[in-house]
Amino acid sequence: MKTSKSDLSSLWTNVCLDDDIKAFEVLYSLLLNRLIKFCTYYIGQKEVAEEIVSDVFVRCWENRKNATIILNLETYLFIAVRNQSLKHIKKNANVRLVEIESSPGIHFIDGNDPEKQLNNKELHYKLDQAIEILPTQARLIFRLIKENGMKYKEVAEILEISPRTVQTQLFRSIAKLRIILKGYYGIQLKKIQEQ
To answer: What are the tens digits of pLDDT across the range 74-100?
Structure first.
């Protein structure tokens, strides 16, 4: 569900001026999953990302009386999460944790054709692998725009780069992904022709 910035802004105003806990809960539920997903791009561990995002929300609630001047709450929260993620990475730079079990995402597939299901699953897997090959900043930009639906300007603010750099990185990423996946499609077509 896409929520307008004016909706978020009015909810935030209610939180700051009226101590409206219901408005805060609505903000929390609207932004939580996107912020956790964003934080996970940096941290690589969902549980730690959940903690960081929760801490950011707690600080927002605690400092709500001093935060009435925030013009774009969504961007503010993404920047806060990014900063906390970077602090966490710096603090734990010498500690290396490996996630044992990854959580599956939501996939919409045609339930009638098992071969199509398998091909779709394999394609999603190949796409995820290809995205992970991208440089860190390019990977973040791609995911924020294509998976989170953010605008170039919003991503530029979050990553502290120019919108033009965001656009260039995105176009380069798409071109690289197209080349990588073209090889995959070539293999699949060859398999089909051999059958």
So the answer is: 888 888 898 898 888 888 766 444 444
5-91: CATH topology: Rna Polymerase Sigma Factor; Chain: A (1.10.1740)
Q: What angle do CA 188, 190, 195 make, to 5 degrees?
A: 100
CA nearest 138: which of 183, 171, 160, 163? 171
Residue type, 93: A
**The domain made up of 114-194 is a member of CATH 2.70.70.10:** no
Q: Exposed/middle/buried for 110, CB within 10 Å: 0-12, 13-18, 19+? A: exposed
Compute the 3-state secondary structure of the chain and give helix, strand, coil in percent, each to the nearest 5: 75, 0, 25
107: buried, middle or exposed (CB in 10 Å: 19+, 13-18, 0-12)? exposed
State pTM to two decimals.
0.57
Whole-angstrom distance, CA of residue 2 vs CA of residue 11? 15
Reference 83, options 172, 157, 141; nearest CA is 157
